Amino acid sequence: MIMAPKPAEGKLGIMVVGCGAVATTFMTGVLMARKGLTKLVGSMTQYDKVRVGKGDEKKYLSYREIAPIAELCDIVFGSWDVYPQNAFQAAMYAEVLKERDILPVREELEAIKPMPAAFDKNFAKRLDGDNVKNCKDRWDMVEQLREDIRKFKADNGCARIVVLWAASTEIYVPVDENTHYTLDALETAMKADDREHIAPSMCYAYAALMEGAPFIMGAPNTTVDIPAMWELAEKTKMPICGKDFKTGQTLVKSGFAPIIGTRCLGLDGWFSTNILGNRDGLVLDEPANFRTKEVSKLSTLETILKAEDQPDLYTDYYHKVRINYYPPRNDNKESWDNIDIVGWMGYPMQIKINFLCRDSILAAPVCLDLCLLSDLAARDGRYGNQKFLSFFLKSPMHDYTKGEEAVNHLYQQHAMLKNAIREMGGYEPDQELD
Questions:
Q1: Residues 300-347: pLDDT tens digits?
Q2: What is the pLDDT averaged over residues 48-68?
Q3: Alpha helix (H) ranges present in 263-358?
Q4: How far apart are CA 349 and CA 266, in angstroms?
Q5: pLDDT tens digits along 233-291
Q6: Out of 28, 76, 300, 318, which could bridge 269 as a Cys pair, Cβ 3.0 to 4.6 Å?
Q7: Distance between CA atoms of 142 and 171, rounded to whole angstroms?
């Protein structure tokens, strides 16, 4: 007998690391929607429908009709940020949304005042905020964050908490076997104030899991994708997932690459470039921070179009990704994909994709879905890596220590997502993953 998830009773606290463009767009949309003033277009939990049953028993239901997903009216927002401005001031400054879409929830946004952030300037040299914790060492950083979570939960009467990273990309931290492979080694490094191998984001993740809160990494930071964090998620029985919101160019790539593979066309090269002018673009203008993003964005293609499956078609293709900081564009990111494909008898062809997107507008529904579904997974007793959340992330979590490969194929990811929703609703997970 399949046990149903616990009901979504009480308030759900969503504590967001970073109170910038993505966070405030997310918060404002939710606050406006629950007043009936907007539609949360792009959110799978609000719009997607899943088939359950077969034959005469077949029907298509929304996620909420299948499983007990938390209601928007039960969400309470909190935040940490290196800048002290409240969420209303931050939303106005970000200039993603028009005033008319912010002013109706001004009071609610003004009440969201960021707590001092756990921050190390060496991991984001382009940021200069002064709303920062004074931490003796990394372990003290963890303890202060744990206290923040406990206090927020108590002060707001929350039954459950989810912690979401919507802050900037940190510099690239290579996985170190001596530090990151066991929980004991990770804790020892934190207590020894190892600032080379322990990023601030790891302290947020550790604090969240220890306080019984699922943790979601919206940037490509080396944070939860290490064996020590997998061990901690198992120990605390909390769900975790991959990293880096899949919003613009990588969403296109994970959906378009399967067209090439399914049609058995060859690939010579795929060049991707972006211009972006918001705070994320500023941080990524630093080479060490861009390296973190580059690793995340490059991983998508190689797991979809694989030389070992089709050596004639996908051996030695060239894949390059670039991001350029361009302030005039602000949050309105533009990406170009130049794809050189090969057809019948080796004749070359080209595909050009120019995506003029809005970074935070695409990220906000992903934030909502990841928070609601992580909370659902926790209430269903699911812990450790939640592969069904790969649909929303550029870098799905996988056990690279055992040679496991990530699933980046968008339609395979969607099948995994639907199967998980079915399971959590007590239905058979009947969709094959080809």
A1: 898 999 999 999 999 999 999 998 888 998 888 899 999 999 999 999
A2: 95
A3: 279-284, 287-302, 311-314
A4: 10
A5: 999 999 999 999 999 889 999 999 999 999 999 999 999 999 888 777 777 778 777 77
A6: 318
A7: 20
Q: Which of 189, 183, 249, 185 is nearest to 210 (CA)?
A: 183
CA distances from 403 to 135, 391, 397, 425 (A): 38, 21, 12, 32
43/63 Cα distance (integer angstroms):
11
**Which residue is associated with the tokens 């979570």?**
149
How far apart are alpha carbons 215 and 56 in whole angstroms? 40
- Cα Rg, the chain, nearest whole Å: 21
CA distances from 382 to 91, 317, 353, 373, 420 (A): 34, 39, 38, 11, 11
What gap in Å lies between CA 91 and CA 86, rounded to an integer? 9
CA dist., res. 246 & res. 44, Å (int): 13
Nearest CA among 408, 363, 357 for reference residue 387: 408
Query: Could you tell me the strand order of the sheet in which 334-342 lies?
Result: 318-325, 266-276, 334-342, 348-356
The dihedral region occupied by 212, where left means phi > 0, alpha psi between -120 and 50, and beta the remainder, is left
In contact, 360 and 94? CB cutoff 8 Å: yes
pTM: 0.94
How many CA atoms does the CB half-sphere of 238 hold within 13 Å? 25
- Residues paired with residue 351 on neighbouring β-strands, in sequence order: 339
